[in-house]
Specification:
This protein is an all-alpha fold and about 525 residues long. It folds into two domains: about 10-370, no CATH class; about 370-515, no CATH class. Helices cover about 70% and strands about 5% of the residues. It contains 22 helices and four strands. It has helices at about 10-35, 40-75, 85-105, 110-130, 135-140, 140-165, 170-185, 195-210, 235-240, 245-275, 280-295, 310-315, 320-335, 340-345, 350-365, 375-380, 380-400, 405, 420-425, 430-445, 445-465, 485-520, and strands spanning about 85, 305, 470, 475-480. The strands form two sheets. The protein has a two-stranded antiparallel sheet with strand order 1-2. α1 (about 10-35) runs antiparallel to α2 (about 40-75) and α21 (about 445-465) packs antiparallel against α22 (about 485-520). The radius of gyration is 24 Å and the shape is globular. The chain starts with 9 loop residues before the first helix and ends with a helix. The model has no long low-confidence stretch (mean pLDDT about 85).
Length: about 525
């Protein structure tokens, strides 16, 4: 059996994954320059090249890993794990670490160094997570792992891109039609052209013909042709390891590192449910190494296994799409062509592929878990929906020139339980897993295990990993310490009490029933 390095469907996978990565890179450029005051030479000359080297190495590894699995299992349908910059960490590091440091110091180079250290420690935590990752997967029900991903997919991926599509229907719906035909109907287009390629070509043509694009902005001061090779920048971190800023923000860095570990475990479970079982240890270790490499070459943003493997697999992508993505990201980061590309190809032309990815992940959560666990999957969606809802509220308030901090958490008391929304949003990836896991074990009548999960939730609440928060001028931030979310800790303990009582009650009933059966015999 032959194992081709590239197949035609890798082109579709490449376009989707490349657009996803491109969005993250654009956010980095925008946030670093506007919020952190970083000059072009730092953003384009150091941070992006540092990100490029980690993305390239990671994509090459996961492509090799997939090819190795294909040869080992004698299958030619193995799909590489998608990989790129971690979106959640990007926002957390910018708004809760780097921006506050810039406001305090006004020094963009200090901000950059603090960001590098945060990225470095996040990578170390991910590497340590590789040691216990497989154990965590074994004790967590599949419904809990896939439900969390489904919640993220339906909100932060599908809804976000659906809004963008319907914001510009003239140039977005026509390309979307080709994508839906390709992936829903499995129709082969003339000449075997990939649906994603056709969609991007059609969308780009429409955008230019209808005047949505500006030819004068193709080359501008933000998108200039130059070559900036990655270079070692780790020396800039050494002097700041014991900085007050690192100690001040370690409460954000550690939970984000743990968050990345759990997210990667969920993506690995999703890949296994789709038919590709990868080593937890090597995958998580590479994840962590990628973030560490990014930091020592000047990037402030961790890399991770991306959500979406089942979608890329359904598209037909195999190993080549990962290689193409790594090469593409490297070229645009080292050459400064990021904004040039966006000024030529509108995002609306290709985001239908990402909408499809979100749809596949949500469907998988229900299809690849036992049918009677569907309610557990459903309950696990709520925390992610709360997180997305809070993002919408905060974005709307900022656009109106105010914030939750200014209004206070009781501003929506009459029509929106904002306190509950924020509480459910804090640490939502853990809360989703916990609620779904408890639900699975209740469905299975394993009350003792449900009790143990409830006690775990009580502990996480007590120390602030979930539910604890504080309103600040910079937004909602987590609060860590002993007893910071006592109400929730007590609530989860009440869960545990009820479940353990039910465990003994059912045990007694089972014993009585068995006794009666013995007498009858």
């Amino acid at each position: 059996m032959s194992y081709s390095l590239f197949v035609k469907k890798d082109i579709d996978g490449f376009f989707g994954l490349a657009i996803d990565n491109l969005v993250q890179l654009i956010l980095i450029v925008s946030f670093c320059k506007t919020l952190c005051g970083m000059p072009d030479e730092l953003v384009f000359g150091v941070i992006l090249p540092g990100a490029a080297i980690s993305i390239l190495l990671g994509n090459l590894f996961y492509s090799w890993q997939a090819r190795r699995l294909a040869i080992k299992t004698k299958r030619n349908d193995v799909t590489a794990l998608p990989y790129g910059i971690n979106t959640v960490s990007l926002f957390a590091f910018i708004f809760f670490i780097m921006f506050p440091v810039y406001e305090d110091t006004g020094d963009p180079y200090m901000v950059w160094k603090v960001g590098m250290i945060a990225c470095f420690f996040s990578g170390v935590i991910e590497m340590l997570g590789a040691l216990i990752g497989e154990s965590l997967r074994r004790i967590t029900p599949r419904a809990a792992l896939l439900s969390t991903l489904a919640g993220i997919a339906i909100t932060f991926i599908s809804m976000d891109f659906a809004f963008k599509i319907f914001e510009k229907p003239i140039i977005a719906l026509f390309p979307l039609a080709f994508i839906l035909i390709q992936y829903f109907s499995k129709v082969r287009f003339p000449l075997g052209l990939p649906g994603g390629l056709i969609a991007i070509g059609v969308g780009t043509g429409l955008a230019w013909v209808l005047g949505y694009m500006d030819s004068g902005s193709i080359v501008n001061k933000d998108g200039v042709f130059h070559f900036s090779p990655p270079h070692f920048s780790g020396g800039g971190m050494i002097d700041l390891v014991q900085s007050k800023y690192i100690l001040q923000y370690i409460s954000i860095i550690i939970p984000m590192g743990v968050f990345n570990v759990v997210g990667s475990l969920q993506n690995l479970e999703s890949a296994e449910a789709a038919g590709d079982k990868y080593s937890t240890f090597s995958s998580l270790l590479t994840n962590g190494i990628g973030s560490v490499v990014a930091s020592i070459f000047g990037s402030c943003f961790p890399t991770t296994i991306y959500i979406g493997h089942p979608g890329w697999k359904a598209i037909g992508a195999r190993t080549g799409y990962s290689i193409l993505n790594g090469i593409f990201v490297t070229l645009i980061c080292l050459s400064g062509l990021i904004t040039v590309i966006l000024n030529v190809v509108p995002l609306e032309a290709g985001i239908g592929i990402l909408l499809w990815i979100g749809i596949v992940i949500v469907a998988q959560a229900f299809q690849e878990t036992p049918k009677h666990h569907a309610m557990a999957v459903a309950i696990g969606l709520f925390p992610a929906i709360a997180a997305w809802g809070l993002l919408m509220v905060e974005s709307t308030l900022r656009s109106a020139g105010t914030t939750l901090f200014i209004l206070g958490k009781d501003a929506f008391a009459n029509n929106l339980a904002i306190h509950g929304m924020i509480s459910l949003e804090r640490g939502f990836i853990f809360t989703s897993m916990i609620l779904a896991s408890i639900s699975v074990f209740l469905i299975e009548r394993k009350f003792l295990i449900a009790c143990i999960w409830s006690l775990g939730a009580a502990l996480l609440s007590y120390i602030g990993i979930i539910h604890a928060y504080e309103l600040t001028p910079n937004g909602v931030v987590s609060v860590f310490g002993c007893g910071v979310a006592n109400e929730f800790s007590i609530g989860y303990c009440s869960f545990a009490i009820v479940f353990i009582a039910m465990y003994f009650y059912m045990r007694g009933n089972d014993g009585e029933l068995n006794s009666k059966k013995s007498k009858n015999l």
